Amino acid sequence: MELKPDKTLLIELAHYKMPFGKYKGRYLVQLPEAYLTWFYNKGFPEGKLGRMLYMTWEIKINGLEGLIYKIQKEFPQD
To answer: How far apart are CA 15 and CA 37, in angstroms?
Structure first.
């Protein structure tokens, strides 16, 4: 899976929340790296959620969470 610098995609990612489980309702960027790595090892879900989790994992392992928090501040959503 390839990450592409897409402004609208990054804004959507910054505001995407986990829809189920222990971390339901949390922004994906708030998920523990170990949880995302577990998904990486077991397989991300199909579809949009899987793509968003994969991108979040890539961002976190590269220490770029600050970028997502900055986007959340600069592009707030209701």
So the answer is: 20
Determine the distance from the C-alpha atom of residue 38 to the mean position of all C-alpha atoms in its chain, rounded to a whole number: 14
The SS3 assignment for 6 reads coil
CA distance 55 to 52: 5
Query: Which residue from 36, 39, 42 is spatially nearest to 56, judged by alpha carbons?
Result: 36
Tell the residue number behind the tokens 């309702």, with chain if given.
25
- The three state secondary structure string of 21-60 is CCCCCCEHHHCCHHHHHHHHHHCCCCHHHHHHHHHHHHHH
The model's pLDDT over 1-51, given as tens digits with 9 standing for 90+, comes to: 666 667 889 999 999 999 999 999 999 999 999 999 999 999 999 999 999
